[in-house]
Amino acid sequence: MTQLKQMSHLDNGPPTPGKVKPYIHRVRWHGSLTKLTLWSFIFLGLILLFFFRSPSSNSLPSDPSRRSLRTYNWGGPAWEKRVRSSARVRSRNGMSVLVTGAAGFVGTHVSAALKRRGDGVLGLDSFNDYYDPSLKRARQALLERSGVFIVEGDINDSALLSKLFEVVAFTHVMHLAAQAGVRYAMENPGSYVHSNIAGLVNLLEVPFSERDRTDQPASLYAATKKAGEEIAHTYNHIYGLSLTGLRFFTVYGPWGRPDMAYFFFTRDILKGKTIPIFEAANHGTVARDFTYIDDIVKGCLASLDTAEKSTGSGGRKKGPAQLRVFNLGNTSPVPVSDLVTILERLLKVKAKKNIVKLPRNGDVQFTHANISSAQRELGYKPTTDLQTGLKKFVRWYLTYYSGGKKATG
C-alpha cells in the first residue's frame, strides 16, 4: 500500500502551515490500541518467520542495495540549495511534497505532474538494481529537466530524513518507495521487510473493496503491504497522523517497469523469444485489472488535494485524524491472452507463446478493483482502455530503445 502523509504544522518538524483542505471523509478506527498493536506485530512476525525459514534467503549473495544502507553523499550548502529550489512552491495555493521512490515508474509520473501544476517537489530514491538502474537514471534526467531534484538515499536513513525535514517544511509526503514484485519475494524476502515495513515505520517516525478484509494475503509482497496498512492505522490512532493508503492495480504505460508482463512481452516478442502465458487450473483464464499510468496519477493528486492536516502535536493526538484507503484500478479486467493479441497487432509481430500453469508463488488468477470509494471521495474516474494505453506504451518503447539509443524525453 502506498502511504500518503500530510504533515501538520503543529508537529515537531519544521513549521509551515499548508492550506486547510476541505472535509471530505473521515474514517475512525474503532477498537483498542492493544488490538491495533497486536495485529501489526502478528503481520510482522509472520513475515519475519517466512524470512528466516526461506531456504533461498541464506543462499543469495549479500546485496547492500536491498539488505542494508549504502553510503550516499549528501549535505552541504550546495546540496541544501538544490533541495530548497526543487521543493519551492510556484503556485498560489500549492503544496510542498516529498516524493519517495521518485525515480520509480509511478514516482516519476507523479513528481512531473505535481511540478507542472506549480507544486514544490523533492524526490528521494535509492536507485537499487532490482531492475535496470539505467532506466531509473533516465527518469531522473527527465525530472531534472523539469526542475525536480532527486536526493539519492535510503528511506531507512533516519539522519537523511531528519535533514530533509530540517531544510524543507514539507506539507505532504507521497510515499511511493517500496520493493515491488510478487515472484521476487520468493528469492529475496528480506528486501521486502527492509523497504516495505522498516522503511515505512522510519518515515512515519519523523474485485476488492476498500473495506473488504485482507487478513489472508496471497504473497509475501501482499503481506508486507497489509502490515503497512496495520502500522498506518496504529500511527493514525496514537499520534493523529493524517494518512491515506492507495492500492494500485497493475499499472502500465511509458517509462514503466521492465519486470511487468506488458513490458517484457514487448521486448521478447520483438526479439522473437517465446513468452509464457499463464493459465489457471482447468485451463482457467488469468486476467488483470490493467490501469494506465495517467489514471493512477490523477488518483494520487486527488488524494493529496483532499488530505487533511494531522491532529497530533509533540507526539500526542489532539483529535481524530483522517485515515483513508482507496483502490486505484480500471475496473475492467482483461485476459492476459488479450493483452498479447493487442501487442501483436501494435508491434506487427506474431508472438511465440508457451502456455504454462500459474505458479503457486502468490500470483492470483484475477484482479478486479472496486473503486467506489475513490469515485465518491476523490472523483476518481479512469478513462484509458488497454488498447489506447498500450499504443502509447509501444510508441514510447520503440523510441526509447530504437537502435540501442535511448530517448531523452
UniProtKB/TrEMBL annotation:
Alphabetical UniProt keywords: Isomerase, Membrane, NAD, Transmembrane, Transmembrane helix
GO-annotated molecular function: isomerase activity
Protein's recorded name: NAD-dependent epimerase/dehydratase domain-containing protein
Annotated TM spans: 36-52
Source species, domain of life: Eukaryota
Pfam family, one: Epimerase
Membership in a protein family: Belongs to the NAD(P)-dependent epimerase/dehydratase family.
Domain NAD(P)-binding, residue spans: 98-206
Organism: Rubus argutus
Domain NAD-dependent epimerase/dehydratase, chain residue ranges per copy: 210-309
